[in-house]
Amino acid sequence: MRSGVFKETIGEQINLTDSWHVRGWTIALVLALIVLPFYLNAFYLSLLTLMAITMVGALGLNVLTGWTGLISLGQAGFMVLGAYAYAIPTALYGWDPLVGLLLAGLVPAVASLVVGIPSLRLTGLYLAITTLAFAFIINHLVLDFDGLTRGARGIFVNRPEILGISFQNDAAFALLCIGVAAAALLATLNIRRSRIGRAFVAVRDNDTAARVMGVNLHAYKLFAFVTSSFIVGIAGALYGMFLSFVTVEGFPFLLSIEALAILIVGGVGTALGAVLGTIFVVLIPEFANILFGLLGDEFARSLSTGAHELKSMLYGVVIIAFLRFQPHGLVGLWRDVKRAWVNWPLRY
Amino acid sequence: MSYLIELSISGLAIGAIYGLIAMSFAVIFKATGIVNFAQGEISMIIAYVAWTISSYVDGNPFLVALGAVVFAIAFGLLIERLVIRPMIGEPLFATIMVTIGLAVILRSSVVFLWDAYPHALDIGLGRGIVEVAGARMRTGQIAVLVLLILTMIGFFAFFRYSRFGVAMRAVASDDRTALLMGVSAARVQSVAWAAAAVISGIAGVLFAIVYELSPSMFALGLKAFPATIVGGLDSVIGSAFGGLVIGGIENLTGGYISPAIKEVAGFVIIIVILMVRPFGLFGEKRIERV
């Protein structure tokens, strides 16, 4: 039985991990994820790609909602901006996809300042409402400026070719998405353990106390907004490539709910939670299909007409059930299991 | 000139519907301190139930109204008991998310329980056309305005003079002290939810009579947000006025500038107002103590 972990320097304290087991398993997982796309069939490959893209978005929202405690219902709005910021220069003007991806991050980041600055005076509820309003305004602006965005007709987007490597085929595109997801994970984990990340968490836990300790509330809240929407914008661009067609309808309000559901299911305020939550939530429709398949063909067919509704209903049920019965999410569950395993047969 | 009058009058009519829903936001916020993101969905469900009732009783308006009110009370109490009561004492984030989850469930259950097509709720009333100040209005639109004013007066009197209304204000201003004074906060909360369900149910049914009944009716809740923000989340009467203001502005911008702006006018107003006065135009400024 382990009796405790002793850390003597701040470096050890903020290390991502201190265990060789974790490092070993991480390397194994990375290798598996590199090899996996070449062996999966088209269906599982698209599921894996979707998971990677959703993970990027969830990690982005986690910076804002999980760490800084600012509730955002505008996720879909930032994703739309990112998708268009990528699609317009690359598909219509033939710019380099790499520049497109950079713009997909920068444009939402700048736009987030527009929401971020009024939000400095708002808390909780009011912020949720403002971000909701922002998402609606973005959608209507996109539809209205049809000279630039082609309005409701949408823009076709090809899979990119970056630095001479073509991501045309599905396996390569999946690898690109997994790569971006890994980069986002590393980036957010590193932000979390830096001075900035500690300031974010201080703002979330008690903003008055944080301010007394010398944390500049305005600067850090805006920084959280900018970082979060940069990452979310890139997720939007990837999602646009995944759909190979960018329209406002491709990014429904449900995406904002889905992102919040992911954070809640995984456990608010941890990067691991965002990862676990993504896997769980992306698989929900598949679980539902299997479950309803067991109930008989007739039933499954009647449900397939309302697949979109069923999916959103399940999101709702999952959100409420987790908040009610497991407020710490899957991460909390995992922590409990681990503790029970280490301490057995003692209770603590 | 007559164009202006016509626009403003129909704007006021739709604004009255926003106002009713905005009032129910404010009632719940005042009593419990949470915003119910599912209010538009609740009003849609009640309208659908009223439609079902009307098809059984051949559109008898009294039976439909009675059935809808009874259902609204039961529905409000049920939601409060099942979903909201267990969340007392949880952080704000969790409670908001519960109402958002509820909204998503209710929104999609309409498609499952009824269908995805628009319907007309016909109870033989509210469709006649009257001429008011040179503009033509449906009697239903006038009914909404009258009902809004009646509800406003009713709430004003309720909060001012009734024992329970005072208890509600007490819970809103300081729930612990209210508990010590013998006010049952749980009962205040359930009454607030039932009352909010009834008011938004009235709005939903009237909307279905005057315009149409469809699964996209939940957007009424989103449109009522600006109204509540204009009025201040904790001001019931202010929210009702906010509804009229938003309805008028929406229609005027839609008529004079462009129909696309009409849809977002309310949301632009939200952002502008929150920038200038973070607690709404008539909301009380909260002073935080640490």
Kindly describe this structure.
The complex is a heterodimer of chains A (348) and B (290). Chain A is 75% helix and 2% strand. Chain A is mainly alpha-helical. In chain A, strands 1-4 form a two-stranded antiparallel ribbon. A two-stranded antiparallel ribbon of chain A has the order 2-3. In chain A, a hairpin with a 2-residue loop joins strand 2 and strand 3. The model of chain A has no long low-confidence stretch (mean pLDDT 84). Chain B is mainly alpha-helical and 290 residues long. Chain B has a single domain, classed as ABC transporter involved in vitamin B12 uptake, BtuC. A two-stranded antiparallel sheet of chain B has the order 1-2. In chain B, a hairpin with a 2-residue loop joins strand 1 and strand 2. In chain B, helix 9 crosses helix 10. Chain B is globular, with a radius of gyration of 19 Å. The mean pLDDT of chain B is 82. The interface between A and B is large, with 47 and 43 residues.
Please write out the topology:
The complex is a heterodimer of chains A (348) and B (290).
Chain A: H1 10-14, H2 20-35, H3 42-67, H4 75-93, H5 97-119, H6 124-144, H7 146-149, E1 155-156, E2 161-162, E3 165-166, H8 170-192, H9 195-205, H10 207-212, H11 217-243, E4 245-246, H12 254-266, H13 271-294, H14 297-304, H15 307-325, H16 329-343
Antiparallel strand pairs in A: 1-4, 2-3
Helix pairs in contact in A: 3-8, 3-11, 3-12, 3-13, 4-5, 4-6, 4-11, 5-11, 9-11, 12-13, 12-15, 12-16, 13-14
Chain B: H1 2-32, H2 39-56, H3 61-84, H4 92-113, E1 129-132, E2 135-138, H5 139-161, H6 163-173, H7 175-180, H8 185-210, H9 219-231, H10 236-256, H11 259-276
Antiparallel strand pairs in B: 1-2
